[in-house]
Amino acid sequence: xxxxxxxxxxxxxxxxxxxxxxxxxxxxTPIILIESRSYARQRPYHRQKLVLVWSAMRHFAETLxxxxxxxxxxxxxxxxxxxxxxxxxxxxSELRVMSPNDRPFAQLIENLELRCQLTLVPNNHFLxxxxxxxxxxxxxxRLLMEDxxxxxxxxxxxxxxxxxxxxxxxxxxxxxxxxxxxxxxPPEALWFEPDEITQxxxxxxxxxxxxxxxxxxxxRWGVTRQQALAALDHFVQKRLPTFGPYQDAMVTGQETMxxxxxxxxxNLGLLQPMEVIEAVESAYYENxxxxxxxxxxIRQVLGWREYMHxxxxxxxxxxxxxxxxxxxxxxxxFYWDSSKTDMNCLHQIVSQVEKMGYAHxxxxxxxxxxxxxxxxxxxxxxxxxxxxxxxxxxxxxxQTNVIGMGQxxxxxxxxxxxxxxxxxxxxxxxxxxxxxxxxxxxRTGEKACPFNFFYWDFLARHREQLKxxxxxxxxxxxxxxxxxxxxxxxxxLAQAWHx
Length: 499
Ligand SMILES: Cc1cc2nc3c(=O)[nH]c(=O)nc-3n(C[C@H](O)[C@H](O)[C@H](O)COP(=O)(O)OP(=O)(O)OC[C@H]3O[C@@H](n4cnc5c(N)ncnc54)[C@H](O)[C@@H]3O)c2cc1C
Ligand code: SF4
Known about the structure:
CATH architecture of the largest domain: Orthogonal Bundle
Structural class: alpha/beta
Order of helices and strands: EHEHHEHEHEHHEEHHHHHHHHHHHHHH
Number of strands: 7
Number of domains: 3
Distance between the termini: 64 Å
Bound molecules: flavin-adenine dinucleotide, iron/sulfur cluster
CATH superfamily of the largest domain: DNA Cyclobutane Dipyrimidine Photolyase, subunit A, domain 3
Radius of gyration: 23 Å
């Protein structure tokens, strides 16, 4: 009886469940990691995403070898052929894989016709198991993130004083929505020069024959556990103290503001959620930090991240197909090429994504996703774009964030109202409008900002459906007061824009 382990590209921790289960038999346990080129061909991935995953896998294989594991590393067209060869060669009778986070990958594994027993070991890269989340969700009438987050604070004893939240309040979001005024000098982010392995992957990706997106040369993400830990430490020391107040602000040239930029590492398994939370909580007590910054950050990891993962698994497999508003417009071309739009907010953020495969939460939600929502773009097409374009994109986190939160295509499972807004929000929370061809105040006329006419057109088109969402009543009241003439002018602009 030989047990072998297949480690997937986003399971790169030495404590991952399949490795842990064979810890006592390190030297006898064959391990395989596979880079599949046909998998990478599925969509035009950002070149930095491919570099990140493949370089991190290659570094992780080295780490495992140095710890005495017997590692095979394959670069192949598909997963199946090298896997079968390796099973045959090592006479493997049981293949262990830590359960994949993503449903399509779980399906892929199930469809492999392997000549050995397949054991899926429960995934230990999240704080809540799929079953635990289900138990929580089944006991509730509503699946509010705020309720889930509070449960998580108690369950894991994070920022708690007995049964009460430290500081007396669960939610300090109100202190964390300052608009950007004046000059901003957030501490530099921590970047890493590519080493030999990374440079090799960059060259391979650049010369590959498959369709990709974005720049490869400017790759500076970390690819090892040590670098991920350094990024965490840098964030805690330099950015966390002032993380909170400008969490929602967007400033030209300050792509990352005070954000942590830890999602690529968390999603690969190079960092674990609890160690991130503990580092932040300890810094709060040791360095006497502001609670709004600390709570604001912990809410993201203990709350939003775990909640999105839980919801993904809780929903039926047809969740990705949801389209509550029945939106069918094609994705505008500028999402793939920032030079094709003169809307400054979109131009700035899409060019940032081209350069680094990253945008912060509000840029993603209130500009990139908001525009697609109000312009009536197919939720599946915008999800596809996000999935390709971001270094931290995976099915589990994309479906919930894009289909659910961003596009409201699930009809309100996840959000209590659509994240739709006019230029007003962008003008308040960024400096983009100052340098734009369009006027953020105009709904109609020559310089009317597309965010404005699309926003009002969106409300008018979906008035009946939106009435069902109690939180939309105020804006629907404003829509009601709009003259038919103005509404017609708005409608014409929206229709003309799509051509
Ligand atoms: C349309 C849209 C698409 C998104 N796509 C992704 C994606 O592909 N991958 C991804 O990891 N996150 C995604 N998010 C969530 C969030 O925007 C990113 O996790 C965050 O911007 C990553 O940057 P950061 O590490 O600097 O985050 P910070 O703002 O510093 O937050 C800290 C951490 O909290 C976690 N987090 C916060 N919000 C979420 C959330 N809604 N879902 C999951 N984790 C969260 C992340 O791990 C993040 O690293 C998306 C959000 C939206 C609205
Ligand atoms: S005016 Fe409109 S398009 Fe231009 S930056 Fe502002 S919101 Fe974006």
